[in-house]
Every structure is written in structure tokens, then in C-alpha cells.
Design goal:
Shape: globular
Number of helices: 10
Distance between the termini: 9 Å
Order of helices and strands: HHEEEHEHEEEHEHEHHEEHEEH
Structural class: alpha/beta
Radius of gyration: 19 Å
Number of strands: 13
């Protein structure tokens, strides 16, 4: 197979990008000139609360009246939880990464989660734990985004909105900037988002100036725990985000015979006998 050396290089770039992105988030969330530790969360929270006021957020489910400076936020999306913390939210509940599974807090927001005492609520292929959500007594619920989380949020919306104002992010909102824009509106954290975006754009610019991006398209090969191969969909998640630093993803979603492996469409199942063909 001719892919070994190039794929190692690509994986290395991917690892660097992920680590760098985590560093960016830490910098973007620190309002102080100190060491950038999570102690800055107190500053973030107070500034977010101070700038917030009761207001209306327009969502795909209609207009939602959200409170000023919500104190008990439940985020029904593991991948949305980090953004919520970065925007200064008091996240009292979230869900594991996979339906029916269990998760620890991501390293990027584990300190914030511990400080807030965030509860991981179970969820399942057929829906959320509505009773568990209600028991947390939230004053704001945020859910949706691409994947099964969106389907469940839409299905459960009549129940969720009876518990607390519920903001559903559309399933087509696949980039962190689009998701964060909606969340910042709901949390009264637009100034915080502006700073995060500015830091991100500056960081991306510095990366582009200091790497030699490979010529041609970049492929992302993923294996699950059983060793089954997948191609990453170029329109969602990391491949899409890494276009910012000049890595153009291969168009696997347009390749015949590769079907989405889950509700989010992030991964496309690759028949093992086609791995060399697909990634050639």
C-alpha cells in the first residue's frame, strides 16, 4: 500500500492542529493577563452575566425567550459543551459523546466541568432522559447540531420547552463558528464570542504562515475500535475546519459506494477491500 508515509504525515498535521486548537480555546477563554488558567472562568462568567438581558433568540423551532445570565444550563450535545463553557455558561448538565455510552469530560473543559459540578445525563438511540433533565432544574437548554442529537432535540422539543427555554441549533450548522454564534446569542455572550473569533483568526493566520501544506487533497482515514475503516466527510468537523490552514480535504462524500456510518454523516464507511482504492 502506497499511503503509509503520507498518511503518517497527515496524521501528524492533524494531531498538531488538534493540540493547537485546544491551546487556542484556552487563550480565547482567558480574559486576564495571567497564566491563562481556568481561574479566569470567574471573570468570564461575570462579564457574560453583566452583558446579558432577557431577549428573544430566533431558532429553527421559532422564537425563544431566554433569560438574562442563565445560571443552570443543560447542553444536550457533548461537542457543544466545550463551546458553552468557553462562552462562560454555567453548564450543569450534558450528555456522553455516544448514545447509550458513557464519557468523561473532555480535557479541554474538564476543569470547568469539575468547578460547575456538571452532571452527565444518559441518552439513548431513541431519545433523551427527560426526567433527568428536569431534575437538574435548568433555566436554559441548548441542543441540536449535526447528528442524532438534533433529531432527538426536535422530537423532544415540546417536552423540553416545558422544562426551560430551549434553543435548538440546526443540523446544518456544522462549523464551530456557526454553532457558537447561536449559543452566544442565547447566553448573552456576543462580546466573548467576538474575542474568541479574533483569537482564532489570528492563530489560523500564524499557522498558515508557518507550515508547508501538502499539495493536493488531504485524506482522513479513521478506524473504530474493531478496526473498521472510515473516510471523514470533508463537509463536517475537522476536515472542514482545517481548510482554514490550507489543508484541502478529499471529496469522499462524492465518491460512489461510501455510505454515512451514523446520523451525523461525519464518517463514511469504507469497505475494507476498497481502502487502497479510496485513499490512493
Amino acid at each position: 500500500m502506497r499511503l503509509s508515509s503520507s498518511r503518517v504525515y497527515r496524521r501528524s498535521l492533524q494531531a498538531v492542529a488538534v493540540v493547537s486548537a485546544a491551546a487556542l480555546v484556552t487563550a480565547a477563554c482567558s480574559d486576564s493577563g495571567g497564566d491563562g488558567s481556568q481561574d479566569s472562568s470567574s471573570t468570564t462568567t461575570s462579564s457574560t452575566t453583566a452583558s446579558a438581558a432577557p431577549h428573544t433568540v430566533n431558532t429553527e423551532m421559532g422564537s425563544v425567550e431566554v433569560p438574562a445570565g442563565p445560571k443552570r444550563v443543560v447542553v444536550l450535545g457533548y461537542r457543544l459543551t466545550g463551546l458553552a463553557f468557553n462562552l462562560g455558561a454555567h453548564v450543569k448538565g450534558t450528555i456522553p459523546e455516544m448514545a447509550g455510552g458513557s464519557s468523561d469530560a473532555s480535557q479541554a473543559w474538564s476543569d470547568a466541568s469539575a468547578s460547575e459540578g456538571t452532571t452527565f445525563l444518559p441518552w439513548f438511540p431513541d431519545g433523551f432522559d427527560i426526567a433527568g433533565i428536569e431534575a437538574l432544574d435548568p433555566d436554559l437548554i441548548i441542543g441540536g447540531g449535526p447528528g442524532l442529537e438534533h433529531e432527538h432535540a426536535v422530537q423532544a422539543y415540546p417536552e423540553l420547552e416545558q422544562i426551560a427555554p430551549t434553543v435548538v441549533i440546526g443540523e446544518d450548522e456544522t462549523s464551530w463558528k456557526d454553532q457558537a454564534e447561536i449559543m452566544a446569542d442565547a447566553l448573552g455572550a456576543k462580546k466573548k464570542l467576538a474575542k474568541m473569533t479574533k483569537n482564532y483568526d489570528e492563530f489560523v493566520s500564524s499557522i498558515r504562515e508557518n507550515i508547508n501544506a501538502p499539495e493536493g487533497d488531504v485524506g482522513y482515514l479513521v478506524f473504530d475500535a474493531e478496526g473498521r475503516p472510515y473516510a471523514a466527510n470533508e463537509n463536517i468537523g475537522l476536515p472542514a475546519e482545517l481548510t482554514d490552514i490550507g489543508l484541502e480535504p478529499a471529496k469522499y462524500s462524492q465518491m460512489p459506494g461510501l455510505e454515512p456510518a451514523g446520523a451525523s454523516g461525519e464518517l463514511l464507511a469504507v469497505p475494507p477491500e476498497r481502502v487502497e482504492e479510496v485513499f490512493d
